[in-house]
């Protein structure tokens, strides 16, 4: 049995601050009417939206463009049983405006895999939730 006295709900600003500290998260979406999760590197834009950079022909782009998705990132330390998790929920859209694409080419995330037809996907931060657990200990 675990006590949860170390559990804390995070406000939006705390969630965004923590998201900015980690390079990898997970996109949660629907693929062929089933739940799918894909780890991706990302960054936050100035408007707090989550930005992904991928290939224009990727299955991910086809599955999420124009659709509401969830994005989750976290950081945990098993030794201290502490960490946090943040979920951003919002509509994902491919960035099509040339000036915006150019700006993101300079400031946005860089794909960890080689791509030749890069696109940026923006996930609006319509709903941002998070929680933190700080050093809860197991009880016998």
Structure commentary:
This protein is an alpha+beta fold and 140 residues long. The chain has one domain: Electron Transport, Fmn-binding Protein, Chain A (Pnp Oxidase, Chain A, Roll). The chain has 3 helices and 9 strands; from the N terminus they run βαββββαββαββ. Strands 1, 2, 3, 4, 5, 6, 7, 8 and 9 form a 9-stranded antiparallel β-sheet that branches. A hairpin with a 2-residue loop joins β2 and β3. The longest helix has 10 residues, at 98-107. It starts with 6 loop residues before the first strand and ends in a 7-residue tail after the last strand. InterPro entries: Pyridox_Oxase-rel, Split_barrel_FMN-bd. Pfam families: Pyridox_ox_2 (PF12900).
The poorly predicted ranges are none
Mean pLDDT level: 89
SSE ordering = EHEEEEHEEHEE
Shape: globular
The proportion of strand residues reads over 45%
CATH architecture: Roll
CATH topology: Pnp Oxidase, Chain A
Indicate the structural class.
alpha+beta
Helix content: 10-25%
Radius of gyration: 17 Å
Strand count, sense and barrel status of the largest sheet are: 9 strands, antiparallel
Give the total of beta strands: 9
CATH class reads Mainly Beta
CATH homologous group name: Electron Transport, Fmn-binding Protein, Chain A
Number of domains: 1
How far apart lie the N and C ends?
A: 7 Å
What is the count of DSSP helices, taking H or I runs of 4+ residues? 3
